[in-house]
Write a structure and sequence with these properties.
Elements (H helix, E strand, L loop, with lengths): L8 E5 L4 H11 L6 E6 L2 H11 L5 E5 L6 H14 L5 E4 L17 H30 L5 E6 L12 H21 L4 E7 L14 H4 L6 H14 L3 E3 L2 H9 L3 H18 L1
Parallel strand pairs: 1-2, 1-4, 2-3, 4-5, 5-6, 6-7
Helix pairs in contact: 1-7, 3-4, 4-5, 5-9
Amino acid sequence: MPSITDVKCILVIGSTAGIGRALALNILALPTKPTVIVAGRRQQRLDEIIKAENKDDRLRAVRFDVNADRATLKKSVDEVVKQYPELDAVMFASGVQQEFDFTKPESVDLDKIAEELNTNYTSVVNMTTFFLPHFIQLSSSGRPSFIYAITSSLSIVSGPWVPCYCASKAALRSFCQSIHVALKDKNVHVVEILPPLVESELHDHQGKREALSKTWMPLDDFTEKTMAGLRSGAAEIPIGQAETYHKQFETGKLEAVAKQYEQRKAAEKGN
């Protein structure tokens, strides 16, 4: 399978901080010298990254809001593709995590749940749909294209303190497995990254950074392991605790998805 070293131009959505920023800068540092487009809502953060890291004009920035309405989201995708026709990869790194206590249902904020589901899952499905015509056309010429999605170890084993986050990441994981199989013959390669608990701003609003810092994986360690997985061309890259869970509960699952898909195609062809 082709790998990150085949990427010529990648858009990293959600790269103003944390995992997204770290991976964007490490991809920028690859010897293959890809163009890396950082994207996020906060223009000041984007400007800071460009000022600090744009050493040879291969780092670009676009403002991108994954929670925009569908028409605006499509317009944003279309503008990126028009400006960067060589774009052959997108990484979805945006994410939000909220704690909810369903033993106290009166405390559950349904608006926050809707935002969490949209950020972590629905918007990714929408953007994937909008990017795919470009990727399929590009790949038809023989160039591979790539969709990278960041899920979580919690997509395999849920954490009851963040139930909707787990559900959104489990939905994204299932979606990635399905389109990985469906798009394989189109030369569009879908790769899932499964982090454990990682040092990140994701948890800052929860007020538990100090407590979590005692058990999380340092961002540098996570990034190093993830880049190794990306260079290997693996379809799934579970890191740390996610790797343990994956071996215990997910071994052979992607192959089972592929088998089921082929059986369905064969049955349809028989009709």
